[in-house]
Amino acid sequence: MFGASLLLALAITAEVGATALLPRAQGFTNPGWTLLVIGGYAVSIWLLAVIVKVMPVSVAYAIWAGVGTATVAIISALFLGENLNLVKVTSLALIVIGVVGLNLAGTH
């Protein structure tokens, strides 16, 4: 299961990287950045497909989506000038709680 967790971390990293680069793709009008974004998403989905061979899809996808969403929100606030307010922080906390809950439920 350690191997699946490592691949899941790589899948999340690829997805977060691709999402963080989306503004540079300029609506997919910039070919170089567009290729990086699409490549990042392709690698992420491929890794997720490999992971679900050994991990329940509900757990893998919840972790992938939840951790990815929270990480992108943090990166956006730190590096892309987006605003974090109480509602956003609370919502992110609920996502993390949901991911933890699904992960715990999937281990039984």
Description:
This protein has helices at residues 2-25, 31-51, 57-79, 86-106. The two termini are 14 Å apart. The chain is built from four helices and no strands. It is an all-alpha fold and 108 residues long. It has one domain (2-106). The longest helix has 24 residues, at 2-25.
**Helical proportion?**
over 70%
What share of residues are in beta strands? under 5%
Rounded to an integer in angstroms, the radius of gyration calculated over CA atoms is: 15 Å
Instruction: Report how far apart the termini are.
Output: 14 Å
Oligomeric state of shown chains: single chain
Encode the helix/strand succession as letters. Answer: HHHH
Tell how many strands the DSSP assignment holds.
0
The dominant shape is flat
Query: Could you say which structural class the secondary elements and strand pairing correspond to?
Result: mainly alpha
Largest sheet: none
* Low-pLDDT segments: none
* Average pLDDT level: 91
Number of helices: 4
Number of domains: 1
List the helices and strands and how they pair.
Layout: H1 2-25, H2 31-51, H3 57-79, H4 86-106
Helix pairs in contact: 1-2, 1-3, 3-4
List keywords for this structure.
108 residues, mainly alpha
Summed up:
The protein is mainly alpha-helical.
